[in-house]
Amino acid sequence: MTSSRDLGPSTARALRGALAELQVIFDNAFVGVCYTRERVIVRCNKRFEEMFGYEPGALTGRDIVMLYPSREEYDRIGRAGYGYLETHDTYSDERMMRSRDGDVFWCQVSGRPLDHDHPTRDGIWIFQDISERKRAEEALQRANERLESRVQERTADLRRAYDALREEMGIRRQTEEELRASQEKYRALFESFPIGISITDEQGKVIEINRKLSRISSLSTVARFTSELELSSMNAALVHPDGTPMRHDALPSTRAIREQRVISDVELGVRYGNGRLRWFQVTAAPIPVKGYGAMVAYTEITERKRFEERDRTQQAELARVSRLNTMGEMAAALAHELGQPLAATLNYLHGCQLRLVGGDYDRELFDSAISQAIYHAEQAGSIVRHVRQFVRKHEPESILVPINSLIEQMLSFLDFERRQSRTAINLDLAPDVPSVWVDPLEIKQVMVNLIKNAFEAMSDLPPESRVIDISTSRQGDMVEVEASDRGPGVSKTKLTQIFNPFFTTKRNGMGLGLAVCRSIVESHGGRLTVSRNVHGGAAFSFTLPIREKSPPRTLNDPG
């Protein structure tokens, strides 16, 4: 074994300095790292302790069984993992782990023994919390299952994205002697991170990149990566999620150095010369070592962005199907409402024709009759325009809208059905409710669906009992809209199912209306809920966030 006494003074100092710098990087790593002996924690970094909810030093000397959901799981993983390491250099898998407060969460775990002849004796293990990724995978799977019955196929892209998210960590270099092996150990950690990592100097210039970043950026050297980053910044090839250019002073690494704090989860787009756009989620943290600036982590999210955009497109199409279904349900009332002005128009025009045939050319009578015909024709045209606007395809947009005005427009659109259903509507619209950034057509669709449901819920009541109460109010940083009816209400057993796709209580219903409404409200950052009101009927309410400006639209890869 080589000790510092066996080395020259300058070599020993250099090695100690390098080890100290690597120790700082180790302590500030974005993933949990621990060194175990016989499955007992000998040492771990700050991120490892934070991940499991323990105070600094509390895990040292403790058996790692305390971090498993059960003893059985601990034994099973031990048999599988160490059995695998008897014939392989590294071991990697995804498993459930347990924090100090008992919460169970997903981790991606990889490790290697320091001595392959005795894999359980000494080992280095890397833990990464992948709960968010797992939740994203589950959300994508749920969305796919909802739409599977309508499109009859799963996308191959989803499988590729899932496989990409499970990329294994790279192989670490084998250590040599103890002192030099310590340096190689930290080098192996840096090179084996499952996310791209770069390290900058105090001016923000990249001085080191790991293998993962080299692969995902397709730039094999530090010089090429630095040159491309600077050139992209100057040529507006780096963009924010809304498509605006990202200047050099807005880069996460530059901000982390300037502000001396962690800059987390910044989405950064890089447009290549061929027009292709790739997306990365970037986190940067300052390194408290002289000569170093920041450690920057890059995770490619191009596939995730594509899936999100595809999901938005499918949700928009599903919403349009729901609107068309709504108009189908309103067809009879709509035909009646159109029939009145069209019949009046025909009557006036027919009267003019009879007068012309009879030789009666009274100009004043003709002017009055034609004016009335025009008036009723414009009424019919207005109804058709409202219907066309309601069912048209449209690109999602976000504009600042007074919510009270939107409600009044919706009620004007439904007025003919309200009159036909002989329902009274009471409004309690708070005058101090601020405008909100929304897609007007989508929010109008939500309200139309809720009001039509209320009409149907009270159809068996006597006309004088058919009342809908609509109110708006401000609840903290949210605007709340509530629509309450006097119908039979929603039973307790159905309260938990009412927003599920394809669940319906109507004989010929599709079960899409409320599911689409909830999806629309949640995509705006709000919540849609239902409860029983004081009259025994149903009270549906939804919230919308109050923002100073419109949330950014995502710029998508044209390829």
Automatic annotation (TrEMBL):
Keyword entries, A-Z: ATP-binding, Coiled coil, Kinase, Nucleotide-binding, Phosphoprotein, Transferase, Two-component regulatory system
SMART domains reported in the protein's UniProt record: HATPase_c, HisKA, PAC, PAS
Organism: Panacagrimonas perspica
Catalytic reaction list: ATP + protein L-histidine = ADP + protein N-phospho-L-histidine
Gene Ontology biological-process annotations: regulation of DNA-templated transcription
Coiled-coil residue spans: 130-192
Top-rank taxon, per record: Bacteria
The Histidine kinase domain, residue ranges: 333-548
UniProt EC number: 2.7.13.3
CDD domains in the record: HisKA, PAS
Alphabetical list of InterPro entries matching this protein: HATPase_C_sf, HATPase_dom, His_kinase_dom, HisK_dim/P_dom, HisK_dim/P_sf, PAC, PAS, PAS-assoc_C
Stored Pfam families: HATPase_c (PF02518), PAS (PF00989), PAS_9 (PF13426)
Enzyme superclass (EC): transferase
Residue ranges annotated for the PAS domain, each copy included: 182-220
Protein's name in the database: histidine kinase
Residue ranges occupied by any PAC domain in the UniProt entry: 90-142
